Amino acid sequence: MKDLRNYISIKRITLFSALIVVLFISEGCGESEVFNEVENIQDIIAPLPEYTPVPENNPQTAEKINLGKQLFWDPILSGNKDVACATCHHPEKGYADALDLSIGVNGIGLGEQRRGIVLAKRNANTIINTAYNGIKNDDSYTPQSAPMFWDNRAMSLEEQALLPLLSKEEMRGTAIPENILYDSIINRLNQIEEYKLAFKNVFGEESISMEKVAQAIASFERTIIANNSPFDRYIRGDVNAMNQQQINGMNAFINVGCAECHSGPMFSDFELHTIGVPDNPKLPSTDSGVNTYTFRTPSLRNLPLTAPYMHNGMHASLQEVMNFYEDVAEGDTDDINVHISINDIDPLARQLEMDNDVIDEIIAFIEALDDNNFDKSIPASVPSGLPVGGNIHN
Ligand code: HEC
Ligand code: HEC
Question: Which of 25, 108, 143, 259 ranks highest by number of CB atoms within 10 Å?
């Protein structure tokens, strides 16, 4: 990861000049007086690298990415052949699904229109920028151990990719028992000439394995990146990329304490914290995360595309999220999870005091973390001949 370190230090120099200009501009306008300009901002929040980190044991090739894309869109990987990864991670919904809780097996429709009775236990994370999960401001990052899921229970895109297949609610259903699921999927793929050929071309061997399925899907996911938001451009030196309200919001974001957890290039420390989000009443039982209602700090990139928010989609808008933090800071327990007390909440999340102007500025800043220029292409067909993306057409 030497490259990354060099990259960051070069950017620091650019950033430093950018900050001098910012200080200069904001002097006369008086709006940001409440907040001191933050020094060494680049040690706290940072732009994304302009390249995608790839693990040594799974190098990218055009053929592998293409195979991964077919698998991602093909419902052949699901028990009833009705759900694909793309069902819940669809480009038109920011590679998520616009639902509080995902609807997998037996569901019909896309996004807000999707209907079904089997609910996944959590809100779907976006695929965008998962190539960077785990990245920090130092050089400790490796894509082989990138944390995945709201509780960090998988470590790498490769490890993550096979787990939705096993999940009864997401893709497996009840027709195929868990212990023979992978064998049945491999059997199915072996019966499709186009897949047999593609696996052979990509991996140089006849045999199809789940490991290869996972590698191909992970390679495709690493191409879904959005690393050129107004914030990235601003911090790389284009001082006009963010407006004054967003610049104020950036400073407030740090001064108020959001960056204590939402830090680094992804605006996440990728650690687990208790912030006390209430349970989603649609679920039959409480979800206490890893232990005392701890969940991973989510990235704050591309949020305008991926509402609703939190591990269970309980907050519909950024305004609702901000009101929640404000209530917690005031010690108001009406909005927090009934199974915990206010003292169980991470102290860093109990000190976030903001007035309405600051809330507006922080929301404007979060909007400057959005980059809508990612690959949204949808394959015209998939090798199985099944509906592309599963039963998403109403
Ligand atoms: C039924 C909807 C559904 C389907 C189908 C689905 N996912 Fe997901 N995905 C989710 C949900 C819900 C989560 C969060 C689960 C959790 O944290 O416990 C998630 C999380 C993820 C994450 C973690 C991202 C992060 O930032 O931690 C990745 C990567 C991912 N899915 C990829 C895939 C792939 C690859 C497939 C197909 C093999 C797939 N998903 C199929 C709903 C779905
Ligand atoms: C103590 C660490 C911590 C601090 C401080 C913190 N957050 Fe969070 N944030 C989290 C965690 C953890 C979650 C996920 C909680 C859950 O899903 O139950 C979260 C969720 C969010 C979400 C939802 C994102 C999504 O994709 O669902 C937003 C938006 C957000 N935080 C913004 C902020 C802002 C703005 C501040 C400052 C006012 C802030 N956070 C301060 C840890 C923190």
Answer: 143
